[in-house]
Known about the structure:
Layout: E1 9-13, E2 16-21, E3 24-29, E4 47-52, H1 63-72, E5 77-82, H2 94-111, E6 117-123, H3 125-137, E7 138-139, H4 155-159, E8 161-162, E9 166-173, H5 193-214, H6 226-229, H7 239-245, E10 248-252, H8 263-267, E11 282-285, E12 288-291, H9 294-302, H10 304-311
Parallel strand pairs: 4-5, 4-6, 6-9, 9-10, 10-12
Antiparallel strand pairs: 1-2, 2-3, 3-5, 7-8, 11-12
Amino acid sequence: MDNNNNNESIKQESPICSKSVDGGVDLWSCNNKDKDNKDSSSSSPDHLVILVNGILGTTKDWKFGAEQFVKQLPHQLIVHCSERNVSKLTLDGIDVMGERLAEEVVELIHRNPEARKISFVGHSMGGLVARYAIGRLYRPPKSDNTEEGSNDASDGDSRGTICGLEAMNFITVATPHLGSRGNNQVPFLFGVTAIEKVATYVIHWIFRRTGRHLFLTDADKEEVPLLRRMVDDCGDLHFMSALQAFHRRATYANVGYDHIVGWRTASIRRISDLPKVLLLSFTCAQNMCWCCSPWFLKFIRSGLTEIFCYLVGGFC
C-alpha cells in the first residue's frame, strides 16, 4: 500500500515494513508497528539505529544490512538508512554532511517519540560523518547541573545524551579515522611516496571538498585540518564527549583486500599492531576484529554478526 502524502510511502515485505521519508528510509518489524506508526503490540521498539553510507554511496548500500538488523532484533529496533548525503552530495565536505545528518536525526527522533536509545553504524566515510553529527547532537549530562551526590540522574544522563536519547553503540566499518594521507593509507596507491604526494595535491579535483578533508589539506592559516579538530571537543562541537557518551564503541578494519581504506587509518593502530593470523582464523580483541580469508572478507566487511552483538549489549 502507498501513501503519497508528505512524500512518504509505506511498503510491507513480511515481516519487515519500510517507509520512505524525505531524508531516508525507516525499517521496522511489521509485528510491532502499523502503517501510521502506532503501536500494534505491547512491545514497541525504542532503539533507533542510524546507518550512514560512504562516499558516492546511497541507501541501497545498507538495504541488506538494515533488513537483517530488523529480522534479528524485531522487538527492539527501528532502523533508519540515511539519505541526506548520497551520491554527489558526499563530495560537499564532512562538516556539511555532518550538519545534514544531524538535522536528519532530529527529524527522525520527532517522528518516533517512543525512542529512548540511539546507535550509529557508519561505513567508510560515513563513519566520519556520523562522528561529526554526534558532536553536534551531544547534550551534556544533567548531573552537571545538580548537587553533588544526587542519585536522580540515570546512567545515560550521567554520560550525556545524543539529542536526549541514551547513546548505546557507535560502530564504524572501514572508516578512515586518521584520514587518507600518509604511507599506505590508500592501498591502491601501492605505497609509492611520489604517487601519494601527488594525490594529496590533486585529490580535490575528483572528490572536491571531501577530498581535502580526507587528505588533511583543508586547513587555513589559523586552523588545523578538520579531522585533527575532531579528536577533541571543539567549541560547540563535542566530538570526544559525544563518543564517550556511548556505552560501546567499535571499529572494524580490513587487514587486506581493501584497496581504498588502509588498515592503520581504519583501526587507529600502528602497523606493528597488525596481528598474525592464519587463513580462515578470526581474532577479536579490544573491540577490534580482523579476518584474513578472502572468502570470509565480504561477510566481515559488513560485520553483521558482531554488530548484532553490540546492538543487544554483547561483545564479539
